[in-house]
Amino acid sequence: MTASRYAAKPWVALLDDAQRAPIDPADSLVRALRRSVAEAPDRTALAYFDGRLTYRELDELSDSVAGHLAARGLERGDRVAVLLQNSPAFVLALFGAWKAGAIVVPVNPMYKAGEVAHVLRDGEVAALVCADRAWESYLRETAAGSPVRIVLTACELDFQTRGDARVLTFERLPQAPDADDLTAVARAGHKAPELPGLAPADIALISYTSGTSGTPKGATNTHGNIMANTERQSRGLPLPEAPVYYALAPLFHITGMVCQLGACLNSAGTLVLTYRFEAGVVLEAFAEHRPHYTVGPSTAFMALAAHPAATREHFSSFVNISSGGAPVPPALVEKFRAGFGPYIRNGYGLTECTAPCASVPPQHEAPVDPASGTLAVGLPGPDTVVRILDDRGEEVPFGEQGEIVVRGPQVVPGYWRRPEATAEAFPDGELRTGDIGFMDERGWLYVVDRKKDMINASGFKVWPREVEDVLYTHPAVREAAVVGVPDGYRGETVKAYISLRPGADADADTLAAYCKDRLAAYKYPRQVEILPDLPKTASGKILRRELRSRAHDQ
């Protein structure tokens, strides 16, 4: 058998000594939290508008949540679903569940009843932590047909007094008779149960995928998976002592969980939370807290750049800004740098590899492939192997496209109780991502597109990303998404959905002609539709599947 060209890890030569160094992480974020408590008990761990929780308080309050859950009969290995936005309540529920020996199931609070019901049943969830208004409006009925037997509700007005009406648009409800109050439980002073320590192989999270290819599946992120990426994230960024992280990505998403919450607490830093994304609120938080690091989707940076109050000063404290969820178009990176100063560094990962498996180190800028114009998403870590395979499962040479596959300490062992899906996606423990990309000889990884998103126009392959990258170079374009739509003559044809920058003036014909001048005839969009906003996931990723459905319904 021919030796793997990728096993040589050419990317390691581009990493610095700290990034190449072997890691010996703590066994879990619970252990990392307690280490930070010992180092800096009175340092602010969480900042929530005008509220502050120190490391000592975070540890004690989550101990009390753990003690309450254990007293209510929660056992080691039971599942606890958490449906909350970026607030201290989320962090208390997370660590309380882990300290009780449970597995956390983070759930998007924007999910509808049917989506939540699937997660509660599939994960055999024993306990539910959610917002009080969600419990009253739909979750009580949803949970009634599930294994849930313990309910804690949270009012996310707690732990602050500012009450910013732009995001905190709700009122406190009377405590439900069939649920316990998370804040009261946290302040009750319960002692955490004395349990054997969490092991790296123990499941920490069951993270349900977005379900782009059928029913959502639960990726089983272990404590070791989380800590491997948390340690790499902490060591790979030259942040100051007591760093300040801003939680731009939602904590229920694996990127927010690892790259913000995990890396911050592992570094004894301060995590700034502002409930959910609202551009004006975010900019004011930047000015108030002067964060050193944040990570978010490219759509969030587009929204921040488009806000009329945004200035270079808002971003002047940042040492590093990363983007995840989808590759950043090169035009956006340069527009943002020209307007505000920071260089946005790409990152690439999936839920199944516990957030990043490649990122752009702080000492580098991502190269742009001269042939395709694609911006590199980063370099793998020293303990990760990324390979590119053809349809027969054989390695392709550097520079050639194929499916991206990943092996490393961040790759999950499989899907929750889905042995067939696990065998298909993780042959011999290696993750088949379903993403198409290539790697250059130095080890830079480039993502072309999702396998399933490829458009077949008269037999020619069109990757939506290539068309989107061209659209982003137009000064009027704020957001762009390209999908294939049925066409009687070509089989499929290219359609672009666009949202415009504030004050911009461009019509569909102008944008189609712009692409026609810059792309092969079979690639440019024959149809262009301009919308006020494009549909997105809670983590900010543009939903091509919704746009594809919209096109089919028209």
UniProtKB/TrEMBL annotation:
Residues 34-416 form the AMP-dependent synthetase/ligase domain. PROSITE patterns: AMP_BINDING (PS00455). The keyword Ligase applies. PANTHER family: LONG-CHAIN-FATTY-ACID--COA LIGASE (PTHR43767), NONRIBOSOMAL PEPTIDE SYNTHASE PES1 (EUROFUNG)-RELATED (PTHR43767:SF1). Residues 466-541 form the AMP-binding enzyme C-terminal domain. Gene3D superfamilies: 3.30.300.30, N-terminal domain of ligase-like. GO terms for molecular function: acid-thiol ligase activity. SUPFAM superfamilies: Acetyl-CoA synthetase-like. Belongs to the ATP-dependent AMP-binding enzyme family. It comes from the Bacteria. It holds the Pfam family AMP-binding. Keywords: Ligase. This is Acyl-CoA synthetase.
